[in-house]
Write a structure and sequence with these properties.
Layout lengths: L1 H7 L1 H15 L4 H31 L1 H4 L6 H30 L2 H21 L19 H30 L2 H31 L4 H11 L2 H15 L4 H25 L6 H20 L1
Helix pairs in contact: 1-2, 2-3, 3-7, 3-8, 3-9, 3-10, 5-8, 5-11, 5-12, 6-11, 7-8, 7-9, 7-10, 7-11, 8-9, 8-12
Length: 293
Amino acid sequence: MIASMQLFYPYRYFCYVFANAKNKKGYNSFMFALFQSTLRTMELAILFLIPFIGTVAGSAGVYLFRNGLGPKTEKAIIGFASGVMIAAAVWSLLLPAIADSSYFTAAFGFLLGILFLLAIDQLTPHLHAKALNPEGRPSSLSRSALLMLSVTIHNIPEGMAVGAGAAAMSASGGELTFASALALSLGIALQNFPEGMVVSFPLYREGKSRTRAFLQGVISGVVEPIGALLAFLFVGYLASLLPLFLSFAAGAMFYVVVEELIPEASEGEHSNIGTVGAAIGFVVMMLLDGIFG
């Protein structure tokens, strides 16, 4: 266990040992509590910001790939993102929810998450990357604004998932729980990387400058750390609802995969590349959860 902490979280291990050493020497317990509070704040900041960094890195792809992404490459990365999200919903959200409550509670929360995203999908005007006509309520917003709203809807459940994972970490305070929450954040960041590309390239093709497309891609990801913080605070006040909220976030993520990502990875000329990408994404997220969890 100690070796694992030194390998994956050296800053955390150092703070833990240093704080306990000070405490054993008789220093004021206030200093020990301050170290613990600072450590927890650093952990939350890392968990909330890692997915956003993934979006920023992906959006920067508009500078690296002058001619954009080819159809097969785009299908592969969308498939990869869908595989990561499905695995995260199962391993990092649904299974912990079932372990802490029951199958019925998890099923109820899962369906609530789907209904929540379905309602947002119907009420919010938005435009998918390759669609000709917007969905949701009629709106006079520009195509780029509608595209950003589509990605924002996509990012809502991801932010909720990260916030719920952080809340689970705080509820137990265990090292393995932090590792699981970190695996979830890393998995969301992995799928945010191709997602950032999928946002910035269509904006660039619509006539935006590379810088404008990059910035709008970055802005589309801001909702994730905000959503994560709100979810964390909400579950923190209602800790008994944590299993329900974990399964709720899983249902919302599942809705995004089935309603948006899988169709985008399968449209056009038939190809298995999206399926292969989904399989790789699922395995990568599963391994992340196994290694860190």
